[in-house]
């Protein structure tokens, strides 16, 4: 199976480096992406918006012969959902890693402080305690050293969707910061945070208790959770 891996904010393709070996060992073909403006700290991020990142994922789908599994971490969940909306017939399953689908008109996070066209990685004090579980001092130092400013246009732009066939594609939510039971409670209560997720017909939930960056704090466990999702019904072995 071709597995397209979309990183969250401040990260490039290398953020998946401790996850991809297990996927390859299981016979799959991982395709970790570096999205526009995320090539380096010095890259030009002016004019780059959410649609540009979605279009990059769509191009990756179109470059492959078979159906794919899309994996999106954090803000990457909104990006893979936009790509799924563009190519619902090409996606076997969407996997949201501590994230979820972003609905029409939503933004990923327009409250993040920006510096011109950049959204730098905030100081750790700006994050919730739940974000930082298991992210020890060494991991924090390594994360900050590799962090690349996110294009402001990706964080602030509104999502636009067009094809309701996106709701027919099975999804897996790998819940890290919050237990999946809480997400399901929010769905039952009609919470706007999970409004788009509530419309997906087939959703499975997997609990992976850790902070917001399991690819750093629990990479082996994350790889196994992705493998289980890939091999679940609705994700063919092509």
From TrEMBL:
The superkingdom listed in its UniProt entry is Bacteria
User: What UniProt keywords are attached to this protein's entry?
Assistant: Hydrolase
Which Pfam families does this one have? Abhydrolase_6
Instruction: Please state every residue range assigned to the domain named AB hydrolase-1.
Output: 3-225
Q: Which GO terms describe its molecular function?
A: hydrolase activity
Protein name per UniProt? Alpha/beta hydrolase
